[in-house]
Structure formats: C-alpha cells, structure tokens
Amino acid sequence: MIRIFPLALLSTLCFCQEAADPWPKQELLEPAALAQLIQSSKPPVVIAVAFPVLYNQRHIAHAVFAGSGSKPEGIESLKKAAANYPKDADIVVYCGCCPMVKCPNIRPAYRALKQMGFTHIRVLDIPSNMHADWYTKNYPSEPAASNQ
What we know:
- It is built from six helices and seven strands, in the order αβαβαββαβαβαβ.
- By secondary structure, it is α/β, with parallel strands linked by helices.
- It has one domain: 3-Layer(aba) Sandwich (Oxidized Rhodanese, domain 1), CATH 3.40.250.10.
- It has a five-stranded parallel β-sheet. A two-stranded antiparallel ribbon has the order 3-7.
- Helix 4 (72-82) packs across helix 5.
- The longest helix has 13 residues, at 4-16.
- Mean pLDDT is 86; it is low at 1-18.
C-alpha cells in the first residue's frame, strides 16, 4: 500500500495540470499584428476553428470556417479546407470561444495542421474571447451573410 501511494499521488498531480501548448511561443500572434497583416498586400490564410454559431454571428474578415477543432468531424472539415493550400502557406488559426488556455478547439486544430505537414502555422492569441480581444477593438471582421 505504501508503495502505491507515491505513484497515485504523482498520477493525480499530472492529471490536474493543464497540457502544454503544442506550439512554440514564437508561433503566437497578437490580435493587433493580425489586424495589420490581413490588411496587407499579402494577407495570411485565416482559419476559424470555433463553434459554428460563433463563426456565423461574426468572424475575422475573410476567415475560412473549418469546423470545431474539438470534434472529429471538425478536424475532417479542417483537413479539407487546408488541403488546397501549399504546405508553406502562411496560416493563422483561431477560435476565440473562451480564454485560449481553456479552448477545446485550438490545440487539436493546430496539431492536425502540423500533422498535415504545414510549416508556417501561427495561433491567434485570444486571452479572453473574440468579443473582448478583437471585435471591441474594431479589428477587421465580418457579420454573418444575410442568407445564413
């Protein structure tokens, strides 16, 4: 029994910690930087991996919706959306459903793009949510199309 206790304690501590982000810090992109980039002559491909209801309400200008990254069907949709881009495309992926540290969509989406062989992926740093970190700052966004 005494030998099992340290192992049980160690496993409990490991499960309580949040998983490390799969991206290096240099692949995080601040909202202000993306706002400038998407208005440049060569904007990055912006891929939304948020829940459909959030994307359909409002999203970053010209963002491609690729499904919720937390669901297998969302990852399949992401793979289909990304398949037409070269592996060295400048890609920015974002969700914004909640604080990024708790986001269920962004990490699986990032991993899927890496597994597909993409070499220039950045993650939009959304500390709170899209409303607070993007829309209230009047960064480029689009409402849902009138026929949605």
